Amino acid sequence: MVLAIMASRSAQADVAMTGTFTATQACPAYQSFRKSTDPGDVKVEQNKTYALIAKNKPDATHYRIVVEGAEPKERWVSSSCGRVEPTDRSASEASQPSAPTPAPPVSGGTSGARATHVLAMGWEPAFCEDHPDKKECRDLSSTGFAATHVSLHGLWPQPRGTQYCNVAPNLREIDRDHDWNDLPEPDVSAKTLSRLAAVMPGVQSKLERHEWIVHGTCFGGNAEGYFARAAGLAEAVDASKVAQLFGDNVGRSLSAEAVRAAFDDAFGAGAGARVTVSCNGRGENRKITELVISLAGDVAGNAPLADLIRAAQPVPPGCPSGIVERVPF
What we know:
Blueprint: H1 2-13, E1 15-23, E2 27-28, E3 43-44, E4 49-55, E5 62-66, E6 74-78, E7 82-88, H2 91-94, E8 117-122, H3 124-130, H4 135-138, E9 151-157, H5 169-176, H6 190-199, H7 207-214, H8 223-238, H9 241-248, E10 253-255, H10 256-267, E11 275-280, E12 287-295, H11 305-310, E13 321-323
Antiparallel strand pairs: 1-4, 1-7, 2-3, 4-5, 5-6, 8-9, 8-12, 10-13, 11-12
Helix pairs in contact: 6-8
């Protein structure tokens, strides 16, 4: 009974969102705003913009944001501390019927389905600059694969908030506390784990356990199929002109326009319009951290990545440009 009440409260308090939160003043960034816990004494910075994840209830008093460099990086901040600019409807809003919003004109067509999944590909040197104590970051070499190619972060079912499907409450708590070593090991073959480790450096920190608990459980099927598909899609990106573009521009600024053009070259006209570039920092210090690639269609099957990308609706380009961080930082 107690667990049911707790689950109900959690569902009511965490309404998924996408967009940005711009701080108008310095405020505490809580791991739990109810308990006022703030590991690391983290504060949002005035005039800085953060990725938005959720609100605590429909009439929000707090927003859940991503504070890069914090541990854990997902934090709650008071709604009075800034302004919100949503870029998508929340998961609860998306379930309600509404008139479709026209997509902006792009090459390769404006039509497409709402993304059923996103493929998140990160730039490891940018991640490691903020997380130097991670095992994969301590071992990062300037000539290694992760320093010259985009790395798999995850394959995430959509809409945002589609998480922890049939996962026990105790495992959710372990995951949210970032105790990933204590999570069960996904049941995958040695071959698939080897493929995954090649494109996902975070395997060294048990990232695959986190990804399975949060996202893989909502993918459908077993862990073997989920990670084999995620690894295959990541391999397709890293074998393309997209990876070549990043490798050729290490240490230099790269525009979202150039990134999207590389996707067009690699996966067909209009593919770039389905990619959002994420950055951290401002001005000359702004760094590219991740590429969020929208997918629709037969994601769980054998459809080529090019078909999956172009089947999705266009999305905002994200940050206009950023540095491709080098190793050493």
